[in-house]
Specification:
mainly beta; 1 helix; binds zinc ion
Length: 85
């Protein structure tokens, strides 16, 4: 069996998510929260380091880039305990 490169991307033209395994998955998507410990994609720098930082300073999470998690294919992640439906 040939290993196919997995991809899960949003097709703007078709306005739907396309899974390389399941093709057009429509609304069958799940949400996986970022495992990096960020707060919806951001870290509060002031809370982490009140001496060096000003209130309201924050940095974008390097893992989810401010998204707080990822949209994933619902069918691929049916057994994924971290996926929220
Ligand atoms: Zn994150
Ligand atoms: Zn899939």
């Amino acid at each position: 069996m040939m290993a196919k490169k997995y991809s899960f991307i949003f097709d703007k033209k078709l306005d739907t998510w396309i899974c390389s395994e399941h093709e057009d998955v429509g609304d069958n998507t799940a949400w996986v929260r970022c495992w990096n410990g960020c707060n919806d994609g951001y870290f509060d720098d002031y809370e982490e380091d009140p001496i060096e930082c000003e209130p309201g300073e924050y940095s974008v999470c390097s893992e989810c880039h401010g998204n707080g998690g990822w949209t994933v294919c619902g069918a691929c992640n049916i057994d994924n305990a971290d996926a929220e439906y």
